[in-house]
TrEMBL record, chain A:
<feature type="coiled-coil region">
    <location>
        <begin position="44"/>
        <end position="78"/>
    </location>
</feature>
<keyword id="KW-0472">Membrane</keyword>
<dbReference type="InterPro" id="IPR028987">
    <property type="entry name" value="ATP_synth_B-like_membr_sf"/>
</dbReference>
<dbReference type="GO" id="GO:0046933">
    <property type="term" value="F:proton-transporting ATP synthase activity, rotational mechanism"/>
</dbReference>
<keyword id="KW-0066">ATP synthesis</keyword>
<dbReference type="GO" id="GO:0005886">
    <property type="term" value="C:plasma membrane"/>
</dbReference>
<keyword id="KW-0138">CF(0)</keyword>
<comment type="subunit">
    <text>F-type ATPases have 2 components, F(1) - the catalytic core - and F(0) - the membrane proton channel. F(1) has five subunits: alpha(3), beta(3), gamma(1), delta(1), epsilon(1). F(0) has three main subunits: a(1), b(2) and c(10-14). The alpha and beta chains form an alternating ring which encloses part of the gamma chain. F(1) is attached to F(0) by a central stalk formed by the gamma and epsilon chains, while a peripheral stalk is formed by the delta and b chains.</text>
</comment>
<dbReference type="GO" id="GO:0046961">
    <property type="term" value="F:proton-transporting ATPase activity, rotational mechanism"/>
</dbReference>
From TrEMBL, chain B:
<feature type="signal peptide">
    <location>
        <begin position="1"/>
        <end position="18"/>
    </location>
</feature>
<feature type="transmembrane region" description="Helical">
    <location>
        <begin position="201"/>
        <end position="220"/>
    </location>
</feature>
<keyword id="KW-1003">Cell membrane</keyword>
<keyword id="KW-0812">Transmembrane</keyword>
<keyword id="KW-0066">ATP synthesis</keyword>
<comment type="similarity">
    <text>Belongs to the ATPase A chain family.</text>
</comment>
<keyword id="KW-0375">Hydrogen ion transport</keyword>
<keyword id="KW-0406">Ion transport</keyword>
<dbReference type="InterPro" id="IPR045083">
    <property type="entry name" value="ATP_synth_F0_asu_bact/mt"/>
</dbReference>
Length: 164, 350
């Protein structure tokens, strides 16, 4: 029954050495190890929480971006529409103006032509009248001398006359 | 998981019991000069010198220091070489590995025996290993662990989360140094005992007795009012039964560490006995043909012992944590299902 009888010496050494080991390990191993583990766990937890927060912020940012984008799109559409309207208006205006201007110019031209025509007619009338008088005068002068010669003269005068 | 481990433990306890008849049959079929019973007991017992191996008549032995105290002649310190082969030195001699005085005086033997030397080796090993690991944490801070650090970290976290937190509850931190030390001490010592030439340290009743007594003292010194109320006025028990219950509970205080002591001692010693018995078969049958069978079984037991080495360390630590948990728990802790991921199974020892 030797193996179930505890040895006093071994108990003594076991108590002494084991307690020294416990104390040394507590001071130089377990405390630093456990505190490092705890620190690491809390840092991981913090990092996870921060990541979650960042994700949330990102989502919010994305939503904001989308809103901004939609707003910008609307603004663009509005500006485009406005521009189209305005350009149409401009074109319309320009067209009207051009038509008016053309009409006015045509009217002016007509007026001028009419005036010119009238003036020309007046001049032709005057010239014809003058010519008639002249011819009449010459005829009257020749009449007085020779009939055939007068006839000849009239013809020659008439030939001279160029109705311009 | 825990239930599975306990089932395994029971199985191993069965092997332990089964091993004893083997040893006695070996005694019965004893051949002229080979006594397996004696050989096995010598191997699992303590000794004053570290005998490595013998080849013919050459013995390779490390002689360890003998430290003895006698009331009359005081302290004597000398090498165990002086006592080899029954020699007498300073009035001391060895009889069956027991140091006795030739004049019949009482001898207090504080020798550095094989087990004490192994104890020192295990302690130094633990100090080197865990201070190195701690230095890794100091160096790398909160970065990922590397090397030895990453090997021991899961074990440390396991002891902290699965053993200490679940069994002790919110006050676990005070007991972590003891729990970790006892776990790794038992494991390292078990493994050292499995090395060729290693001593059977954790299979020595003095060692397990000391560990169990330390657990008992920690339990008693950290016990609170509730613990004693449970013992002297167990809730829900009629007053008339208390004269029976109080002695039962008081015995329970001692039985818990006693079971710790016996479980570790018996498991480790049984493993050694079984392995040695299988090896002894070769010498009993004096037949080389039996060697493969012996080796196969011996190897199987060896691998089983590797498992038992960590299993027994875990069980000792877990039960220690449970006893401490029982002593420090507050009355309302049970309502909080403390320390339980699975609230259905409160990890409590009663």
């Amino acid at each position: 029954m030797n193996i179930v009888t505890p040895d006093l010496g071994l108990i003594f050494w076991q108590v002494v050495i084991f307690l020294i080991v416990v104390l040394l390990l507590r001071a130089y191993a377990w405390k630093p190890i456990l505190s490092s583990l705890k620190e690491r766990e809390s840092s991981i937890e913090g990092a996870l929480r921060m990541a979650d927060q960042a994700k949330l912020e990102m989502q919010q940012l994305q939503a904001g971006n989308e809103k901004l984008l939609a707003e910008a799109r609307m603004e663009r559409d509005r500006i485009l529409k406005e521009a189209t309207t305005m350009s149409n208006q401009f074109i319309e205006q320009a067209k009207t103006k051009a038509t008016e201007e053309g009409a006015r110019m045509i009217e002016q031209a007509r007026e001028a032509i009419r005036n010119e025509k009238n003036a020309a007619l007046a001049e032709v009338k005057n010239t014809a009248a003058q010519l008639s008088i002249d011819i009449a005068e010459r005829i009257l002068r020749r009449e007085l001398t020779d009939q055939p010669a007068q006839q000849q003269l009239v013809d020659s005068y008439l030939k001279e006359v160029k109705l311009n | 998981m825990k239930r599975l481990l306990f089932a395994l433990l029971c199985l191993l306890s069965l092997t332990a019991r089964a091993s004893e008849p083997i040893a006695t049959t070996a005694d019965a079929t004893e051949s002229e000069n080979f006594n397996p019973g004696e050989m096995i007991l010598h191997h699992i017992g303590d000794s004053h010198e570290w005998h490595w191996f013998s080849m013919g008549e050459t013995h390779v032995t490390t002689y360890l220091p003998v430290i003895a105290y006698r009331a009359g002649s005081g302290l004597s310190v000398f090498s165990s070489h002086e006592l080899a082969e029954g020699k007498v030195h300073e009035g001391l001699k060895l009889e069956h590995e027991h140091l006795i005085s030739t004049d019949g005086a009482k001898v207090y033997d504080f020798s550095i025996t094989k087990n004490v030397a192994t104890l020192m080796i295990a302690s130094v090993l633990m100090l080197i290993v865990f201070i190195t690991v701690a230095r890794g944490y100091a160096k790398r801070g909160t970065a990922a662990p590397r090397g030895m650090q990453s090997f021991f970290e899961p074990l440390i976290i396991f002891i902290r989360d699965e053993v200490a937190k679940k069994s002790i509850g919110p006050k676990y931190e005070r007991y972590m140094p003891y729990l970790l030390t006892v776990f790794f001490f038992i494991w390292f010592s078990n493994l050292l005992g499995l090395l060729p030439g290693g001593a059977n340290l954790t299979g020595n009743i003095a060692v397990t007795l000391t560990l169990a007594v330390i657990t008992l003292l920690i339990t008693l010194f950290s016990s609170n009012k509730n613990y004693w109320a449970h013992i002297f006025a167990t809730p829900g028990v009629p007053k008339a039964l208390l004269p029976i219950m109080i002695p039962v509970e008081l015995i329970g205080i001692v039985v818990k560490p006693f079971s710790l002591m016996v479980r570790l001692f018996a498991n480790i010693t049984a493993g050694h006995i079984v392995t040695l018995s299988f090896i002894s078969l070769i010498f009993i049958f004096r037949n080389i043909g039996i060697a493969p069978v012996s080796l196969a079984f011996g190897l199987f037991i060896f691998f089983l012992e590797l498992l038992v080495a960590i299993l027994q360390a875990y069980i000792f630590t877990l039960l220690t944590a449970m006893y401490i948990g029982g002593a420090v728990e507050d009355h309302h802790d049970a309502d909080y299902q403390m320390g339980g991921g699975d609230g259905a199974a409160p990890a409590k020892a009663h």
